[in-house]
């Protein structure tokens, strides 16, 4: 068996833990992999934990007992979160985003892997201490956010479709009223994509009245799923909100098409008293 130097062992252990967040890895797995005693592994884990926590990247959680082990819990500090939110708000305020009809162009933000990865880590931090079986979003723009969040939570993604597809097999479909346009919209979810009774986190890119999120909540009720929370990247003012409890990162307060200005502020993330360290 190859004998690992401690420096190499530390790097490899860190890689394995970060690669599969929230997965419990027995200490014996590391001891066998590196051909060293569990006591040495425990010392290595203390070092990794100290560095990760100091950098605001997360922490290692140790579970004692025969079935125990260690797992990496990704987190983001308040200072890091504020930095991401400032960047997001600054980019949202660019007047070149204004489209005809007062809409905003967001595809470049949703196509930025670095930004989406950080947003996913923020959402995962909010629910780091909770059991999440799946992250749910609606096609198509919310998909990158859902996968980024699920990656940090170590869970799966279920995608709600606007229409059913033959390749999805048996589906559950409901009709829901859009909050802003009052139109009837169809929401479908494949039965195989989500187990009954799952605890889910809803993620979406943009919310106005909340009709899309409300539709997802109603659809998930057909699966007897428990909605642990709702996270959106951007919200905008609405006369009537169909969803009351949610987290938002940024808020578009006003779009003035004539003067080509966009007023943007932080969302309700910190106002809700979330405990970022």
Textual characterization of the structure:
With about 280 residues, the chain is an alpha/beta fold. It folds into two domains: about 70 residues, Winged helix-like DNA-binding domain superfamily/Winged helix DNA-binding domain (Arc Repressor Mutant, subunit A, Orthogonal Bundle); about 190 residues, Rossmann fold. The chain has eight helices and twelve strands. A six-stranded mixed sheet has the order 6-5-9-10-11-12, sandwiched between helices. The protein has a two-stranded antiparallel sheet with strand order 1-2. Strand 3 and strand 4 form a beta hairpin. Helix 2 crosses helix 3 and helix 6 crosses helix 7.
SSE inventory with pairings:
Blueprint lengths: L5 H14 L7 H8 L3 H17 L3 E6 L5 E6 L3 H15 L5 E2 L3 E2 L2 H4 L2 H14 L7 E5 L4 H11 L2 E5 L10 E7 L6 E7 L8 E9 L3 H11 L4 E10 L11 E10 L4 E6 L11
Parallel strand pairs: 5-6, 5-9, 9-10, 10-11
Antiparallel strand pairs: 1-2, 3-4, 7-8, 11-12
GO biological process, one term: negative regulation of DNA-templated transcription
Protein name: Purine operon repressor, PurR
Subunit structure: Homodimer.
How many structural domains does the protein architecture include? 2
Q: Uncertain runs with pLDDT below 50, 5 residues or more?
A: none
* CATH topology annotation of the largest domain: Rossmann fold
Range of strand content: 25-35%
Termini separation: 42 Å
Based on the structure given, which CATH architecture of the largest domain is correct? 3-Layer(aba) Sandwich
- In CATH, what is the class of the largest domain? Alpha Beta
Count all strands and give the number. Answer: 12
Series of secondary-structure elements, N-terminal to C-terminal: HHHEEHEEHHEHEEEEHEEE
């Amino acid at each position: 068996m190859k004998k690992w130097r401690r420096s190499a062992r530390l790097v490899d252990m860190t890689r394995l833990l970060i690669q599969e967040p929230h997965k419990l890895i027995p200490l014996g797995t590391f001891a066998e992999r590196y051909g060293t005693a569990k006591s040495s592994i425990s010392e290595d884990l203390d070092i990794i934990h100290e560095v990760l926590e100091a950098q605001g990247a997360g922490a290692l959680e140790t579970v004692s007992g025969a079935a125990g082990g260690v797992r990496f819990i990704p987190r983001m500090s308040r200072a890091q979160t504020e930095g991401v939110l400032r960047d997001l708000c600054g980019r949202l305020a660019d007047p070149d985003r204004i489209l005809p009809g007062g809409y905003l162009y967001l595809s470049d933000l949703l196509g930025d892997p670095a930004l989406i990865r950080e947003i996913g880590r923020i959402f995962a931090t909010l629910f780091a201490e909770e059991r999440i079986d799946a992250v749910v979003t609606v096609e198509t723009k919310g998909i990158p956010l859902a996968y980024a969040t699920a990656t940090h939570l170590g869970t799966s993604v279920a995608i709600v479709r606007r229409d059913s597809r033959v390749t999805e097999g048996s589906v559950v479909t409901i009709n829901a009223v859009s909050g802003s346009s009052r139109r009837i919209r169809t929401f479908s979810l494949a039965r195989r994509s989500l187990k009954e009774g799952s605890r889910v986190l809803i993620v979406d890119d943009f919310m106005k009245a909340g009709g899309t999120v409300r539709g997802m909540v109603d659809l998930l009720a057909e699966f007897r799923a428990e909605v642990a929370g709702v996270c959106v990247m951007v919200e905008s003012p609405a006369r009537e909100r169909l969803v009351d409890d949610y987290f938002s990162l940024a808020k578009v307060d006003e779009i003035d098409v004539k003067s080509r200005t966009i007023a943007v502020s932080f969302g309700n993330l910190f106002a809700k008293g979330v405990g970022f360290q």
